[in-house]
Amino acid sequence: MTHDKNLPTMTSPLIKMGNSDKTKECTSYWDGLIQGDRVHRSIYIDDDIFAREMNNIYAATWVYLLHESEIPNAGDFRQIWMGTRELIASRDDEGMVHVFSNRCSHRGATVCRTHQGNGSGFTCPYHGWKYDVKGQLFGIPGKTAYGPQFKARELHLARPAQVAIYKGFIFATLNAEAVPLPEHLGAATRFIDDWISHQGGEDNIQLAGAQRYHIDANWKMIYDNAGDGYHVPFSHQSLLQMTKARYDGGDMTYFADADRSKMHLYSLGNGHTVIDQRPDMYDNSAWEQQRPQPGRECFEAHVKETLDPQQAKSVMESAVGAGMNLNIFPNLLFIGNQVQVIQPLRADATAMHWHATRRRDADEALNTIRMRTQEDFPIMGEMDDAANFEECHRGLVNSPEDEWVDISRHHETGKDVVDEQGIVKSPVTSEIHMRAYYAEWKKLMVAEPLLTVNKSEAKP
Amino acid sequence: MTQSVQPSSQTKSVSRYLPSSLYLDSAYYEWLTTVSSDLSLAVVRAPAATQQLHEEIVQLLTLEARLLDQRAYNVWIDLFTQECIYWIPATHPAMDPRSTITLEFHDRRRVLDRVDRLGTGLAYSQLPASNTSRQFSGVEVWPSPKCDDEWRVRCSFALVESRQGRNRTLAGWNGFVLRREAGSLKIVLKQINLVDSDYPQGNNSFFL
Predict the structure, then answer these.
(1) Which has the minimum average pLDDT: A62-66, A247-251, A363-367, B80-84?
(2) Distance (Å, whole) CA A33 – CA A20
(3) Rounded to two decimals, what is the model's pTM?
(4) Cβ of A305 under 8 Å from any chain B Cβ?
(5) Is the Cβ–Cβ distance between B197 and B89 less than 8 Å?
(6) Mutation to test the A interface, candidates B28, B30, B105, B124, most A Cβ within 10 Å
């Protein structure tokens, strides 16, 4: 294949340009990369595009940080990321959550060097500047060496322009102009609420540790796959074959001929999508369909001994996933009972954090089987996905003349149905997930957002 | 010895999932967490094993490592008791697996699921397969309390993995519980404690 003449040549000034009078030129540049049914390879592998994403996507729109249950007590803190920006989230004595940069106002050293902990604040190891748990500077050794000009400056740890919490899920953006979080979540809210209901309500959810993976591939490969109902019978063939051979079938077999299943893929706006597996998964009994996890028999016996049949069914189904692959652009994926977070590292490297959940109202037996269930897919399936992401990345890098990534599945079949809210219902193997989020991606990449942090005193 | 607790209910003995897995009850978990904290203790333990037993254990661990390097999983699994656990904590020290996620925690049945999955030849994370070479050293042996046929073992390990021409090093320490059954030593528990268990892991889709 020859170079596409219509495609503007990739140059850094185009990508980095910040003058709004050149927006038109810029728009046509991004239109060249993101077309209706294909996207250009450079968006996965180009370092300048990655650098712009870290501002225009991972700072200028709402980015998921952490769940409130990860910092339950006063003084709790935890390192978090907005793309490549490292921040700290903490909880103060009044129970308020604070989010600020892990960067001393003096010379830039990180003030927090552990993943998580509990304390009364942070002391910079370099020169001993002291910050309280809200990130406010309250102590500088040898302060008499500073004059009035210095003392007039705001030197608290830098807070994102906006931080907001939706039912325990904490988000932030550096864009003061970003629409309010509820508006950003939009039509996805109903599905988030369904996911929360499956866990017994927002106050019932406790994150229970994480499985963390490093993948040598662009972060979007992971987001691409999160709404991909097409790959299952191929990428996960080993899992399906083993399940068939050992247990005569089980979960995910309904993906074999997915477009004829009862499942659908919904495009929810703002880059959010969901594969709703529930019509097939919960049609009969999700518990019965599930491949056996360690301790299944003991758990089942315990539940049947202690609960009436209807309660037993609901408790056993809580052990199974919520039946959704719910994708909140750009970095929050609800999958099964897990909360998966994408952390871009470089154009060609990504960390993925699979946070497990347990329930506050559950007995030990239920929470235990939830752990065993949530461990299952990462080692049985995710490793094969990750291998494919890495091979996609290698393929794109190694064949520069072959420029396009195809996303045209069900683009021309006329199967999409749009409801009055604008939600698009598609066949489950449709690549509408990618077409929809790339439309949002392009809108954000074209923009010239103003990114700001606040170093003033934290509001009470 | 809580690991010998039998299932109390008749309903447990019927399972359509073979091999049935009836041993992972709350008493077994209780025992596991006790063992896990013992394995990670920073204490001086009096040498308890005879030279002969020590050598027998080193031989078993050597065989276990070699069979994994050879990816002879169907032979390797026979080194384990029927009621066994393969456990890779996601934290160090290991947290209670009843309330916190692990990297891997398998009963015998799920170990066999993994073995069979790899055996399909369609597990793309192992296509091509990883070549591994393991070293272990610093073997310490002490008896399980109130047992004359069961021992706890710790050793350090380093594992070089090579796949598609790229090499990685995994390292840490292994904790074992070994029990003598019908004259031969078997593995009841293998707990793999990676030095970086709480950091993002690469493609560890082979057995560690």
Answers:
(1) A247-251
(2) 20
(3) 0.93
(4) yes
(5) yes
(6) B124
Q: Is A212 within 8 Å of B101 when comparing Cβ atoms? A: no
Going by their DSSP bridges, the two strands A159-160 and A453-454 should be labelled as antiparallel
Bridge-based pairing of strands A424-426 and A404-406 is unpaired
Most confident listed range (A278-287, B3-12, B174-183): B174-183
Sequence-distant (6+) residues with CB within 8 A of A81 are: A65, A87, A343
A440 exposed, middle or buried (CB, 10 Å; 0-12, 13-18, 19+)? middle
Nearest Cβ partner for B105 among A115, A241, A294: A294
Please, which residues bridge with residue B132 across strands?
B161
Q: Are A433 and A227 in contact (CB under 8 A)?
A: yes
CB A79 within 8 A of CB A103: no
Quote the CA–CA distance of B131 and B192 in Å, as a whole number.
19
**DSSP structural state of residue B201:** B
Residue-wise pLDDT for A82-102, tens only, equals 999 999 999 999 999 999 999
Q: What CA–CA distance (Å, rounded) separates A48 from B205?
A: 33
Go through A167-200 and write b for each residue having 16 or more CB atoms within 10 A of its CB, e for each that does not: ebbbbbbbbeebeebeebbbbbbebbebbbebbe
Residue A97 — φ and ψ, nearest 5°? -90, 135
Kind and range of the H or E run holding B138: strand B131-143
What ranges in chain B are assigned the alpha helix state H?
26-40, 51-69, 73-76, 108-119
| Pair of tokens at residue B92 | 């160090």
The ipTM of this complex is 0.92
| Chain B residues with CB-CB distance to A380 below 8 A | 113-114, 117
Please give the structure tokens belonging to residue B71: 């990816």
* Contact of B191 with B174, CB cutoff 8 Å: yes
Which residues are B185's β-sheet partners? B180
Q: Is the CB of A116 inside 8 Å of chain B's CB atoms?
A: no
The distance of B198 to chain A (nearest Cα, Å) reads 7
- Report yes or no: A64 and A165 within 8 Å, Cβ to Cβ: no
CA A135, distance to chain mean position in Å, is 25
Inter-chain touch B125–A296, beta carbons under 8 Å = no
Least confident of A9-13, A438-442, B30-34: A9-13
Q: Do A380 and B117 touch (CB under 8 A)?
A: yes
Sign of CA dihedral B61, B65, B66, B70: positive
Q: CA–CA separation, B121 vs A237, rounded Å? A: 10
In the block, tokens 């079949």 appear at A413
Residue A335 in tokens:
């999958």
- As beta bridge partners, residue A75 has none
